[in-house]
Amino acid sequence: MSRMTVNDRPVEFLMDPETPLLWALRDAANLTGTKYGCGNGDCGSCMVHIDGEALRSCLVTIAEAEGRFVTTIEGLSGDRTHPVQQAMVAEQAIQCGFCTPGIVMAAAALIDRNPGASEEEIKAAIPNICRCGVYPRLVRAVQRAGRVARRQERISAAPAPGISAEDAAQEVPALSAPD
């Protein structure tokens, strides 16, 4: 049994202590925002914060996480107002979205430590692989998030989280088959 705090809630995993934290989060805790990408620590899709440090959850066992504080993308900001989340949207630094949670977690840890990070520091702190190649926009987004964190800028362009059903789709008359 491995006990830890996940997204500010005490959790006890009744799994083999050698289970990667990634699988405990996804399968046992149903926190599926943490993605499985490569399984060997290369891609960063599974990045979470452990005691405030961005770590790849596929490389950390639940035994190693015992007694620690884990934050997943779901726990970063319930209303998606974290500066990195807002800047990623505002800078259009998201394409397919698969790698986004891991990138956001790596960037958020950097912004917490160093909101004025240089381009070189950003590239070093965010080793995540993005198949869509959003890297130039990603750097701009992290720089912008740093300005927001330092209260030098405010983002108002990013939409509020969620969309109402009425705004997402409407009922239309059925199409008739061509004659």
Number of strands: 5
The CATH H-level superfamily of the largest domain is Beta-grasp domain
State the end-to-end CA separation.
Answer: 67 Å
Radius of gyration: 19 Å
Biggest β-sheet: count, sense, barrel?
A: 5 strands, mixed
CATH class descriptor of the largest domain: Alpha Beta
Q: Which class of secondary structure composition applies to the elements?
A: alpha+beta
CATH architecture descriptor text of the largest domain: Roll
Strand order of the largest sheet: 2-1-5-3-4
Tell me the CATH topology of the largest domain.
Answer: Ubiquitin-like (UB roll)
Continuous helix count: 7
What does this structure look like?
The chain has 179 residues and is of the alpha+beta class. The chain has two domains: 2-76, Beta-grasp domain (Ubiquitin-like (UB roll), Roll), CATH 3.10.20; 83-149, Orthogonal Bundle (DNA polymerase, domain 1). The chain is built from seven helices and five strands, in the order ββαβββαααααα. The chain has a five-stranded mixed sheet with strand order 2-1-5-3-4, sandwiched between helices. Strand 3 and strand 4 (53-56) form a beta hairpin. Helix 3 (83-90) crosses helix 4 (100-113). The radius of gyration is 19 Å and the shape is globular. The model has no long low-confidence stretch (mean pLDDT 89).
What characteristics describe this protein?
single chain, 179 residues, alpha+beta, Ubiquitin-like (UB roll), DNA polymerase, domain 1, 2 domains, five-stranded mixed β-sheet, 7 helices, 12% strand
